């Protein structure tokens, strides 16, 4: 193995297409700026329709050649076992690169990056136990072969809030299954993807099996509507997901969609207010509140409403907000100006609807260090009911609402009264009671107290929160087509 550690790049003047660095047809440069202070730190070039045509043609050609798709599964897995040996030494580098791009604190990004080896090892483990061919025979000598075959050419479209983790959850199982992959990252958070190709190549991945195309919306829609794409794997907003799903549906493309959420955390009356506050920090304010699985509706028993909301407000007021590279920073800046204005707009909507700002609010934290960054203080809105827009629409920022309830049945009804169904939580010291409640909540996952999704279990949503599942065996299966041969 090459022991010379690569230096991650921050400036790219080419696209990565089927193992080659290719100058784009139109050289449109995008300067990258820090959400913390608006300083420029790097640049990329964007793909356009002609570049998409080239990448798709190369991906189709490589898939049809069988160079990657027909390799024995053991050979494909060996690539990712090697990758898992190489990549962990770069965890700090990639975490810092993501923090530079999206403003999420290094205290969040580093553990997330360090979890990638576990994510990949679970896909490897699932692939080793998967029955790639099953042969059955009848007494008369006839029978069938059921084969797991790759779905084909995959367009993986990923968001900015956890860019590399979202990408790995798609490209690793797709490549293990034998697909070729075109990754379309958000332009402002594409440096991690453009850098990771060197590690994949060092691990032995066929160069023709993978491409990276940072692109804006027009070229992105062209990619997903391209006739050469067989499967779309998308993580992003529900609105964007609806558009992409409609395109996929018209063309009968396969698709998996991990979309938005407005998840409810049901707080029981047996747990202390301080415990609730600590669980809420983990479950509601991770990644600067820019997380689809965040619990943004807290359902609080009326009998403890004042105590819990006051304790939570005091806890949120004590958090360190600031430079995301400082290890003790809990909240950094939001991703960009649009996100900043959107979140502040929702706080104003809540105020106009009659909610009370228990902490946080519209003003930036005071201090010169916040002047150039997109900083929003962690905000708790109280006196909220489930009919308000702030209780129904995804804000995607450090804003939660507290809704009172009188009975567990009412809490479950409120939790389920949403067009979303991605995540949920129960805060209690009685695990059996929590599981009983969780079984009645219509979401893809319900996590008790500070538990978070595990990479060996399915992840995805009900209702408007998406279709399909990521992680583990379900994530691998989403890139497989079954073929039956009767003989």
Describe this structure in words.
The chain has 487 residues and is an alpha/beta fold. It has 2 domains: 15-259 and 465-486, 3-Layer(aba) Sandwich (Aldehyde Dehydrogenase, Chain A, domain 1), CATH 3.40.605.10; 263-454, Aldehyde Dehydrogenase, Chain A, domain 2 (3-Layer(aba) Sandwich). The protein has 16 helices and 22 strands. The protein has helices at 49-65, 73-86, 91-102, 106-114, 116-129, 163-177, 191-203, 217-225, 238-251, 273-284, 305-317, 337-353, 389-392, 408-416, 431-438, 472-477; strands at 15-17, 20-22, 29-33, 40-45, 133-137, 143-150, 153-157, 180-184, 210-212, 231-235, 254-258, 263-267, 295-301, 356-359, 379-382, 399-405, 420-421, 424-427, 447-448, 462-463, 466-467, 480-486. It has a 7-stranded mixed β-sheet, with helices on both faces. The chain has a 6-stranded mixed β-sheet with strand order 9-8-7-10-11-21, sandwiched between helices. A 3-stranded antiparallel β-sheet has the order 5-6-22, with no helix packed on it. Helix 3 packs across helix 4 (106-114). The longest helix has 17 residues, at 49-65. The relative contact order is 0.14.
